[in-house]
Amino acid sequence: MQKRIILLVMLSMLIILVSLGIISQLSVNNSIERSLEKRLMLASIISRYFDYILETNLTRLYDISISGRVDFSDQDWVPETVALKTAYEYSIFTDRIFLLDRHGNVVLNYPLQESTKVNLLSIPVVSRIMGEGKPLVSDVFTMEPTKKKVILALVPLKDKNGETIGVAGGEINPTNYLFNQMIKSIPTETTTFIELVDSQGIIIASNIPKRILTCSDHNQFLGKLIATRQSSVSTCHRCHLEAESPQPRTQDMLAFSPLSVAPWGVSLREPQETVFSPAITLRRNFIILGIIALGAALVLAMGMSRSIVRPIQLLIQASKRLGQGDLHEPIAIRSRDETGVLADSFELMRQKLAASLARIQRQNVELEQRVQERTEELELSRKKLAGLYRKNISVQEEERKRIARELHDETSQSLNAILISLDTLNMVQDQGDVSSTHLQKLRKNVVATLQGIHQLIKDLRPPVLDDLGLESAIRWMLEGHLGTRGIGYFFETQGACPPLPSNGGKGAVDSATLELTLFRVIQEAVINIVKHADAKHVFVSLVFHESCVEAEIEDDGRGFDVASVYTTLETERDTSSFGLLGMKERVALLDGRLTICSRPNEGTHISLIVPF
């Protein structure tokens, strides 16, 4: 089988490659190169002819200076008029010839016109020659205020002493007969365009009269070639033909040659069919030969497909089905050669893959069920743990309430009774062993103890939180912990807490739990500032948004390394850092976020956000 495939393929490739490759490539390329060189040579010849015409007429303008008759100071314009008339009669300046002074003012025209008091310095080409002092030929532009299309040719003007006193110029009609007659005299096909264009793409002369003074459809490309003085042969489209033109849009070959005297160029455009007609003829002959070769190859391929290629294609289709996961359709190829052996191997592989895939699918189903069960168990455990955390905090708060109530109802009452007894004893004391000084000292100690117990009661469960609300409780706490110690503090609130359910709802926090969490977190942060920060100023803010509440506590104390503190807490269980852990846990139970930012000697900033 391998020898037959090699023999047939080699035979087909030899017929196609030997017949078409070498002959067609060499012949067609040579024909195309000769056609392009001819078009570029013709465009270059035409451009040199226009250069000759322009150089000849610029010489007419130089003759005005050479005549020695120009003198603006003698107010005698007869010699200058004679010089202008001579240059006018033997030039292409059919509109007029004029003289400009150094300031751009027209001092003399020929043919004589009614008004000569016109300044042309605003025309770019005039201002340019004033600065450069070199002869120039302009593009087509519109003269104001007459709106007439003209071309200016300008040369420096010198007096009889050889000093430059102004400019001699001539106006060329863009539709000059000499330009168009030169182009029309070249025999061309009706589909060939020969055009003289300026650097703006304006067509000065053309073998198609209606295209004169219109803009070329490739003005930017031609402008770049004129600016760089480059000749070029390239392809283009006739994409701006008039609607009434019977010529269809064609693919053209564009040969372009710039002028050396003026910023113009000559473009020669012909359809590729015309330029490459010899090459097309050669290619057509080669195509016919190629068809014959392809027909022979097709006959050979049909014979190959019946004996060899068809079974291989069936195997390819079967392998694609296996690759896409279709393991149900069997591979049915009946052959006694190597292809049949390969098909039997594929069929055995398909059966084993199908059995293995079924087993894997069963295992995946079982695995997914196990994962789902474990996920449900973990979710249940998380909910139970969250409930335990909430219950733990609730029990703590209830215990604090109970301790505060007992201290208030029992301990405080007992101390008050002792104080009353001491006051009575002090009033009825006699000259016995009991001294007044001793009694006064004892009374002060009892009063101090009573005040400490009262402060403990307030810290455990400040009544102001239940009586006056969160804002007043925070102010009371800040004054008690900071103000009394001479630490400056500033507290501000924005907005108001929206109405929240008293017992909480689905996905919502109740108002009592929210206020208590905010108060405890701020209280813990303030206590840490008093104990460890050595701060001078503390800033506390509370902002209520539509969907969350945001709190910030910031001090200018000595700060600390947050990462090292948490590392110590996790590894060594440092009890001095449990306050930070308690703050994070309280906020986390309400699905909030607590952020602590601090560096040594740079203060500490704590922010928390709790959603409603």
Summarize the structure.
The chain contains 14 helices and 16 strands.
Structural overview:
The protein has 612 residues and is of the alpha+beta class. Among the domains are: 2-55 and 177-277, PAS domain (Beta-Lactamase); 67-172, Beta-Lactamase, CATH 3.30.450; 463-611, Heat Shock Protein 90 (2-Layer Sandwich), CATH 3.30.565.10. The protein has 14 helices and 16 strands. Strands 1, 2, 3, 4, 5 and 6 form a six-stranded antiparallel sheet that branches. Strands 8-7-11-10-9 form a five-stranded antiparallel sheet. Strand 10 and strand 11 form a beta hairpin. Helix 1 runs antiparallel to helix 2 (78-89), helix 1 crosses helix 7 (277-323) and helix 8 packs antiparallel against helix 9. The model has no long low-confidence stretch (mean pLDDT 78).
Please give a handful of descriptors for the protein shown.
Beta-Lactamase, 612 residues, Heat Shock Protein 90, alpha+beta
pLDDT average, as an integer? 78
Low-pLDDT segments: none
Report the β-strand fraction as a percent range: 15-25%
Radius of gyration: 53 Å
Give the topology string: H per helix, E per strand: HHEEHEEEEHEEHEEEHHHHHHEHEEHHEE
**Reported CATH architecture of the domain at 2-55 and 177-277:** 2-Layer Sandwich
Helical content band: 40-55%
Task: Give me the secondary-structure category.
Answer: alpha+beta
Overall strand count: 16
Largest sheet: 6 strands, antiparallel
CATH superfamily of the domain at 2-55 and 177-277: PAS domain
CATH fold-level topology of the domain at 2-55 and 177-277: Beta-Lactamase
Shape: flat
By CATH reckoning, the class of the domain at 2-55 and 177-277 would read Alpha Beta
Count of alpha/pi helices? 14
Distance between the termini: 79 Å
